[in-house]
Amino acid sequence: MLRRLHFGGAATRSDLVAATGFNRSTVGSLVSDLATAGLVRERPGVVRGKGRPSNVVEPVPTSVHVLAFDVTPSSVGAARVGFGGYMLQVRRRLHTTTSHDVGNVVELIATLAREMDARAVPGSVCLGLVVSVPGSVHQPDGVVRRSPPLGWHEVPLADLLRTATGGRYPVTVGNDGDLGAVAEYLRGAARGEPDLLYVRGEVGVGGGVVVDGELLKGAGGYAGEVGHIVVKPNGRVCSCGARGCWEAEIGDAAFIRAVGRDPRESEIEDVVSDVAIGNRRAIAGVRKTGEWVGIGLASLVNVFNPRVVVLGGTLGALYPTMEPTLHAAFARALGPIREQALLLRSELAGDAQIVGAAEVAFADVLEDPLGTLETRRAEIADDPPERKLRHA
Ligand SMILES: [Zn+2]
Questions:
Q1: How remote is the CA of residue 243 from the centroid of ligand 1, in Å?
Q2: How many angstroms separate the CA atoms of 209 and 115, rounded?
Q3: Cα(346) to centroid of ligand 1, in Å?
Q4: Which end of the chain is more exposed for a tag (fewer CB within 10 A), N or C?
């Protein structure tokens, strides 16, 4: 029932009876428990026809919140997300250097976390701090094993953040592709589709696979590194050191080169604006690259048989331009699989990683609302505000 409210927003008691299959008195007593815990509130419904209106139950965005971060090669995005998925506060800081020094990034996240948490309504319980990074993340310890776009190797990011924030929050670190896939499944273009493939094109190319409603993790938690499937044996050297990876053919640098620009001097935004003003060379370059997007997707759908393929980042932005060549190459996928797969642009675009990160931290409260709240409140009581200031 709480899931229905968190993802679907306000609902009447009658809607909740229909959605859960519980009877009215069970729904009534659950609503009352959740209202006592502060997670939901009730207001009188609108009278429709005869009879008493059904009360409307809605999530309380300021009851619990999450601090969500998206580290990319150019910036750190941050948001305080309230229950029900409401973005209560959004921040974005550009990196001041291109070195992505781990210490600077950790300090920036800790500062943003402090600022945003201080703005939360008193009494709102912070469920955790979750960070998305473009790299392979070992679970559950949150060590970034390798992130070519950031130049990081074996960075114990979760531990560093716990220390920098004085142990105030449960900290989770996730892969950007995995979090994007979760976000598109729960709140984006693939809402309600339990089998989906998400591919995000940026400097690097990440991805995530949801199978039967569960994120595919793999033996080490690294599954879904779609950017490093080999598509061109004698192709360019990839950021991972191998040759001919998909990322080397469809990452931002590949698009920039394909439109006749120099990746050292141009940004992907230049490609997007060239295309927007109808520059023929740019359109042809993007279409040529689109063929490689289709080639990789054909192999991936053959393996995973997704109902929906969601393209995010640069791939989502340029999808309408590369559609003809992408589809022609995608036709190599097996017929029965291809016919089932719907190619869509991300609906969440640049917010996908933040949204996915937030949902990771909301998962416990949706699973066990009262128990999770009790545990977090006890942890916070052990670390009162005076001590928090000393940590700061
Ligand atoms: Zn690679």
A1: 7
A2: 34
A3: 23
A4: C
